[in-house]
């Protein structure tokens, strides 16, 4: 075993203590009152880079939260890896559903429970500790590395694309390395090679100018909640096919090779149903559960409200109804075009008894990594060396929109080396991350850099 791998084994517990320090900072990007904590998290990371003597360490100010940058690029003849991650986290609410406070990390059965444990503080911290394992053992870092850690991923990275466009030279690299995805299952190391895109809409349906007595007016005046439900029901047919005209026009169909690769993955549908307490799965006809959840586009209502939802029975005909509706996209669907198609179709469904408005939130493009990219071979071998198993290659349904922008702006592929699990409850109460995978993640990252250096 190499000196770096030994160092990682010998410093296992201290790495956990340090991660806990980071997890105690409630760096919630959706909450404007948490600006101080956002800065605290950014400073924590900057200090880490400074203590490793990396170069050009800096907090770049943006219109929003700072971007943490650091690099070490002494080699002319080795590849340059740009490590991307995010130090912002989702809000912790509903707090009452957490078994222990979200920002007071605790260990239970080998997992650390805290908001951001998996998404993405614990996962992205692995790469910083991998770098440490070279620096603190007096070794040269085997490849050139650059770090870009942002604080706005969970709010759609509004300042990141302008930043990478403005700093193309500084960010020049041969590949991006990201740990912000999940493994296919426990002890199943995986490389994610596809992510979905996103278009996110908010709609409002307005009827009468005020809430009305449902006995006095009911039957004679349109009910916006009823209308909204009818409109939503027309967005998909009974086969789960999205009815928005043009929605599928730019979808690249799955090839036979895609489908057999997906079918060969060790997916256990019974266990999947059991873990969710559902009797049956549901989705677009003609596709498997895995395909539906990763490689096909979808449409889901994320939230719906309107009318009386308090205690007891208040007889009311509501004045308006609202919903948040998102669509996960696949190559080559364009989020702006899809938002426009949605908007046109949704408006066309409205009866003349109501007024409808449709607004668009942030979105992003899907991305698929070229499987012949040489960096994936080093990543696969690194997983194999550490986990003693060949990694699986799978597409995932979540979104990291910046991956498509890295490809477009910097012209590079991203290696999605996830150490999380689908069961980590990211964005939910009781988010967790396996400490064993935190440890193996650090080792895999360090091993990846060693192997990559040998390749070129
Ligand atoms: N890390 C996730 C994305 C993810 C999760 C990818 C699981 C693959 C598997 C990321 O932090 C996230 O939450 N992304 C958002 C989109 C973003 C634009 C807010 C998402 O997927 O909903
Ligand atoms: Mn994430
Ligand atoms: Mn997230």
Describe this structure in words.
Helix 1 runs antiparallel to helix 13 and helix 5 (160-166) packs parallel to helix 12 (402-410). The protein is α/β, with parallel strands linked by helices. 32% of the residues lie in helices and 21% in strands. The protein contains 13 helices and 20 strands. The chain is globular, with a radius of gyration of 24 Å. It has a six-stranded mixed beta sheet, sandwiched between helices. It has a four-stranded antiparallel beta sheet with strand order 12-14-10-15, covered by helices on one side. It has a three-stranded antiparallel beta sheet with strand order 4-5-20. The chain folds into two domains: 3-195 and 366-455, Aminopeptidase, CATH 3.40.630; 197-251 and 297-364, 2-Layer Sandwich (Alpha-Beta Plaits), CATH 3.30.70. Bound molecules: ligand BES and manganese (II) ion (2 copies). The site of ligand BES has 16 residues, from loops.
Keywords for this structure?
456 residues; alpha/beta; Alpha-Beta Plaits; 6-stranded mixed β-sheet; 4-stranded antiparallel β-sheet; 20 strands; globular; binds ligand BES; binds manganese (II) ion
